[in-house]
Amino acid sequence: MPNLNKSTFDRLIEFYSLDLTVFGDAVYRFVNTSTFEADLPEDGIIRFSGQDWTPYAFVTSGWQRGGENLVQPTIEMPDFGSALAVTLAKYDDAPGAPVTRYLALADDVIADNPQAAFQTERYLLDSVSSDGQVLTLTLATHADFKRAKFPGFKMTREHYPGLGSNLLR
Question: What pLDDT is attached to residue 71?
Fold first, then answer.
């Protein structure tokens, strides 16, 4: 891969995957850049971490670390043909589908460095909205996921013998 169509100063590339395998579908992989090797940007597939990633003009926001606030990042992407919206609608918007975000520098991706991703974040798909042109995926951490189920009783070693066993080692 000789070059990447990345115009930002830092040449930071963002990848994200949407895993719908639990619903019997595929893993959808997107990247916010493309190669110069094809006539159309969407044909310039990026090879990263042994997988092919589809170039797509998406914008993400709301990434933060720590703090007391609820972390709900969003991914906004054009969906003019509503292909992804229809796919998600088949699975009732695929609540809880794993979404993984990777950040890597363009030079590492071009060099096909297997350790290119210096930041990996995992979330769950919380909600989907669309206005017919822009599809917005709202994510949640595993603890903040609205449909997460936690025990409604006090957990003790009587019910969970291994509870806290690593604390004393």
Answer: 72
